[in-house]
């Protein structure tokens, strides 16, 4: 584990040349989540009953009990592998991450989030990270620069915003806010921190800084979707003052404005838990 100086972290909007790095961090942070979700679905009583029924039917045509048992499970796993990224998304959104991230870098690139640790330490964070080393541009890079991707306005608006934590030119984490949101409501997508910088307070810094910005823009409530089997994600958001949607609020009464729907997949099973926090 690498010691991270939080007061030297710059939280800024993602740029075009950050996209591949952000995708790699997201893929690393989500590793194993999809398999845990599939296991969660396969062990639901309704799913087990369905698999047992199909196996019984296949047993009438196959002479092998093992094949009759394995084939339905195998086909269901393959089906979930293909459909789950579309239904749950890598970032906790229904949009596939390659479309979501790729459309999010446009906008005011000089925007940054406040870093409270800089005020505590008395040292201002660096305005810009160290410049990355770039090799001599080849023909492929020139083609990309000469013919930039044209992104529809609606797609860019739906993509929302991706903020990255930049420490001396290295991206060590990211947090995303979905673009489609109701008045006064915001939805945070997956918070990801590089494996070498976890348990250093970076995730907390990203979420709380983005909360402060959204509070200043008029948001009064934020939602966060956590994959159903993720005990770590649930504990993380509870420590930040979030509560599970439907739980009793701070005033002792159930909130009636909780309208966020958890993501669903095969047979309508919930694959995310919705956490909510009121910004005051």
UniProtKB/TrEMBL annotation:
Compartment list: Membrane
Signal peptide segment: none
At the top level, the lineage of the source is Eukaryota
Q: Which residues form the N-acetyltransferase domain?
A: 118-259
Q: Does the keyword Cytoplasm apply?
A: no
What sections of the protein cross the membrane?
A: 61-80
Q: Name one GO molecular function term.
A: N-acetyltransferase activity
GO cellular component terms, semicolon-separated:
membrane
Give the compositionally biased regions (Basic and acidic residues): 137-150
Annotated InterPro entries:
Acyl_CoA_acyltransferase, GNAT_dom, NAT_camello-type
Q: Where is this region: Disordered?
A: 111-150
PROSITE patterns noted in UniProt:
GNAT
Q: Which UniProt keywords apply?
A: Acyltransferase, Membrane, Transferase, Transmembrane, Transmembrane helix
Free-text function comment from the UniProt entry: Probable acetyltransferase.
Which family does the record claim for this protein? Belongs to the camello family.
Provide the protein name: Probable N-acetyltransferase 14
Please report the organism this UniProt entry assigns to the protein: Oncorhynchus kisutch (Coho salmon)
